[in-house]
Structure formats: structure tokens, C-alpha cells
Amino acid sequence: MRPNQIAVVNVRPAYDASLAMGLSVDELASVGLPSAVMADPDGAVSGDATYRHFERMAALPEYADFVRAAVDRHTFGTLGIVGLACKTLDTIHEALMCHQRFQHLTNQTARYHPTIEGDHLVFREERWGEPRTGLFLVSEYTALVALQLLRLATETPVWAVAMRTRSPSLRPSLRRRFEEFLGGPVHVGAEHTALVLDVAVLGMEVRSADAELAGYFRSRLDRAAHVVPDEPELLHQVRLAIQHALATGRPTSDRVARHLAMSPRTLQRRLAEHDVGYADLLEQTRRSLAERYLADPALTLAEVAYLCGYEEQTSFFRAFRQWTGETPASRRRALISGARPS
User: Fold this and answer.
1) What are the backbone dihedrals phi and psi of residue 23, each rounded to the nearest 5 degrees, phi first?
2) pTM (2 decimals)?
């Protein structure tokens, strides 16, 4: 993904809400959202296209209805397997970290900085580009989506303390709709758009998580496991622990050791007994997972990169080319068509 691009998976809810309100495919293509790209799960569009889209919608008297409809279309499911993975975590803090990594991977138009300010948890947005109406509108929409996902995760009516927006003003009707959804005031003219919450939100349980969903996600990982014939049980268990760590956080040796109920030093010693180091096992596991995930057409390239533990798609592409001499896209085409790499 290039700078100033955002993945289709993030844009699709607003795109579909526009279609539902009567905009044509051609109208949406004219602002930079062509239907062929929007139908591609690996597709991406420019941030400027999303800004033009929201400027086009804001010209309609039903703009507030559009925003609510687009926000309501967002679920963890719209984020693919990574969104489902977030739902299996125990607390909002863990789920937000999981989602933050995915957002970072699929959004090159903005970054989000959660900070604690006294009794408040503040999600401050850093969005790049020249100030324009559409940029402000998309920032406001993103803050509302974040609150929507929190409510879905906790199955409780989480309310915002406030929302700050860079917009210099809001139409009274739009302000009213925003504040009804947020449960708190909207402050205009801010330096950065931000969602302000009670810090206690971090400790809330992910109520929507259940054993069936967790089992589904684990099974997706387990089916992708690299199984080496006659491999010692320890190495197999370490590989599985690495897979789970890759999808939900950083795959450090300390974290994997805790997962296996041993100290990092003990893990290092036991791996040495099999003449293998943790770094080597991590790279082997990543490569094996990449091959297996690429063979699954239901996963986007962004999701494959995420599940292999890469913060940026470019880092994943570079590593994959070093391993195989191919790009992930070309290997995927070969795997799905049934061809075998040379």
C-alpha cells in the first residue's frame, strides 16, 4: 500500500451506505471510488478519494443520515479475520491494540495515538494532508466508528466524554445527531480530531467474545500450522505459540515463553537442546504461515501481512521476496491456480 492510501475494507461501509441512499456507481467512480477497485478485497483507494466522497455526501441534506448509516454498517466482521480475532481477546485494551495494528497496516492516511489524560482515555488522530472539508468530515466519521466498535465489543452503551473536531463549525442538525450518538458534547476548532472516553473503558471485558468464535479463530491458525514430520513436541508447541502471538501482539520470546508456562531462559535453553534458536524458528514459522495464508483467497494481502506479524505491508513484501524471490501477489496466483513454485 502506497502513502495516502486506505484499504477498501475500511471504505466499503461508507461506499455501500452511499449506494443505499441513491448515489450511482458512476457518481462514486467520479470521486475516485471505481466499482472494480471497491469489489477487490485487496484493493486500496486514495485518501483524497475518500475526502471527495464525503464532500459529495455532505452536499446532501441527508448527510447526517448517511453518516449514521455508514457507522452502523461497521462491525468487527467488516474488518475480516483480524476483526474477528479482536473479538476473542479478553479486554478492550487488548482488542484496541489488536485493531490498532490492523488500522496501521491498512490505512496510510492517518495514525491514532491513544493517551491517558487524567481520568480520560483520548484517541487523538494525526491525519496527513492539506486541511479541507472532506478531511475533517472523514476524521469525524472515524471517531464515531471507533465508538461503534467499542459498543459492539462490550455489548453495553459506552458513551463518550466528548469529541473534538478540526471542523471550524457544525450545522446544528449535524451537531445534534453527533451528540445523540456520542452521549457527550462536540468541540469544534480543535487542533486534532479526538475521541475522549472514560479511562475505565480500557478494563472493560470484550463481552461479545465467545468460545465458539475463539475456537474458530484458533482453528484457522492451527490449520495453517507448519507441521514437520517427526518434529519434537516442544518445537511444535513453540510454533503454535508464535502463531497466536503474531496475530494478537508482538511475537517476542518472553511472550511465547509465558504462553508455554516457562521462563524465557528456560525456553532458550530447551530450544538450544534441539539446535535451534528462537529467531530462526520465528522466521520459519512466518514463512510457512505466509505460504498457507496466501493460498486462502478469503484473506486479503493486508490480513496475511498482519497475521504474519508485520506492522507494514511493505515489510512483509520485502521479507517474502527475500524468502522466495517472488511477490506475495504472484505466489498467491500460483497457489490458487494449483501451480507449484519453481
Assistant:
1) -70, 150
2) 0.70
